[in-house]
Amino acid sequence: MNSHLDRRDLLKLITASAFAMPLQLNAATDKPLYFDEHEFTLLDALTEHIIPRDAHSPGAHDAGVASFIDRTVAHAFLPEEKESWKKGLAEMNRLSMESYNRPFLKAGKTEQVDLLEKLAKAESHPKTDGERFFDQLKGATIFGYYTTDIGIHKDIEYKGNVIQEQFSGYDAV
Amino acid sequence: MLLQFPGPNPNEVDLSPTYDAVVVGSGAAGGMAAYVLTSHGFKVLLLEAGKYKDTGKILHSMEWPYDHPRRGRMPDDYHALTLNEYNVRQLPYAQNSPYNKVQSYVQGWSGTDYSKTLVVDEKENPYTGTRYAWVRARAVGGKTNIWGRLALRLSDYDFKAKDRDGYGENWPISYSDIEPYYDKVDLYLGISGHPEHLPYLPDSKFQRPVKLNYSEVHLRDTLKVMDRVLTPYRAGVTTDGLKHNKYRSKCYGRGACNRHVGGCDIHAAFDSPTGLIRPAWDTGNLTMRTNATVYEVTVDKDSGKATGVSFLDSETRKSYQVKAKTVIMAASTLESARLLLLSKSSLYPNGIGNSSGHVGHNFCEHMMGPSVSGFMKDLVGKPKTNDDGRPGGFYVPRFRNLDGKRSDFLRGYGFEGSSGTTMLSSSAYATAGFGDEYKKHVREYAGATIEMGAFGEVLPRFENFVDIDPDMKDAWGVPVLRFSYKFGENERKMAKDMAVAGREMFEAAKFEVLSNSDQMLPEGWSIHELGTARMGNNPKTSVVNQFQQCHDVKNLLVVDGSTHVNASCQNPTWTIMALCWRSCDHLADQLRKGEV
Fold it and tell me: Does the predicted model carry a pTM greater than 0.90?
């Protein structure tokens, strides 16, 4: 055996995993596992607010972030974790009712953003249920978005996880 | 014909011979002891509490997160302890946890599904006492399967530190004693780095160094003016390949070692199973028994010598005894101390090798937490480069107190750092807000980020120790460790200085500072625990001699991090292996002469 891996072996390392795993659920066509239809639509809209489509790349909706959160929450081991999502989404509607007399999705785009901005002010040191839910939602959206092919390749344009004969960069002189 | 690695089922391993040596633990130290002694022609039995896991098959280093059903995360009934849990919960940490499996904080990083079978379940392996983030791996290779790879030498600034500042004890060896063995470890296992000719951080026999990116070159140039050094990560990774080891590939710069908890499925990064154990196996002199949870060193009442060890099969719980001419403890700093303390007899009422009362004491490590992060303005919004394709970023060696005590604290610290675009950029979590602005900011700053965190010497103190808990037992019925260990005033002062010095360097480089913390992480976080059976010339104040033989029991060796006299601020793995090689050469000589 050669002391260095054969290029073909390395290619096998990269491709093997892609075929071993079941296909991911598609956000557009599959029924949510945990959330009801209304909750799922609300979650999808909220994640798209956090990371929206822009001229550079698609956003959380296209990356199927709500679907990933739904799948994660459906399999969550602790009932509290599941419930925190249901309660959080209900809290978003309650806050919207309080301010605009309409549930979140019925409020205008600017109103939705205003509401989220109020919650985002307390980011990292949340005190209210709504503020805590904003942090939870943002954390899950970040992980859900930046671990997709859209997040990694189209948005961040990450160049790593490739085989290189030479390291890239500069010599220390 | 030789049996194929890793040999027969654990229960079928032949335990009837009296082996030349029984080695307890198969990590960096145990692997090295097995390799050196089998190469000298001695018959070695290697005992490992965990199983053999082929990391080449389980790590999936290049799997994209979106090709994994949980994006690399552990199953839902697993839980990794959080920083907050270490801070607020009473020990044992997994007590009353609703999860089926509870693991240490390292399993809270990304890609942890791959390492979940290497790290112990805290429910099965409790411990008590003071706060301590204890990371343990029970599997062939131990923590070398997931280690951080920074491979540094110690120098006489460390071995003779007492001569410089009067604190603690000198080691019974000098740099010149261990230098040839550092060279052997470098050449046999492969190490990457760039020579800097620093007396306090000696160069290794380096293979191809990793490269620096734009921000790092800039910081290196800035530090030169400050009489400080930034050097490419000295990685225990073969970047040019090793003609003598067919189990290891050279590094292909995939950067996978930074994206998962650690580990390398092509074994360019050193791990004990491919770097040491398989070569030992190929000599035909090695027998390996996995699932062997050792609970006692056995002794001969007449001669006082060690006769072997007793262990439980980790699955069947059946007890076994094995005989050997020498017993070599390599179970890790804390587990080896636990085993010495558990091995009580009428001859050794305080535990074997412990007439000094120093076993479990002088416990030390590296303190971490203080850090600085920021970004380089020139790089904001620039096209992305592959900054993630290397086995490590950079290292800033110690610059404090090199000529004695010059600060309000003793000893020093170094910084480990990295910069540029990663797969899941730290800028995503560091950027406030949401929406278009947020998304653009994350994208544009991802390549411009740079961060470094300090690793500082925790002074060895007799009053920092572990002993055996009088009541609690682990899942195998073996009494557990009780911690009496806390950072002190020196560490608190050092932490403040780390934060100030970190900011000072970033500001000198004109980096925009985003965060700067002087908060120490909990004790244990560095996974560099050391010193519980320190070496020395005086049997009253040390446990082993310079060849890691117990003063009280010459055929009992302790070859892991236990024997460090001080922690220095350099990562310990390379020193553990160099010392072990030296001790096993010496032991081989003694075995040949019939002197043990």
Answer: yes
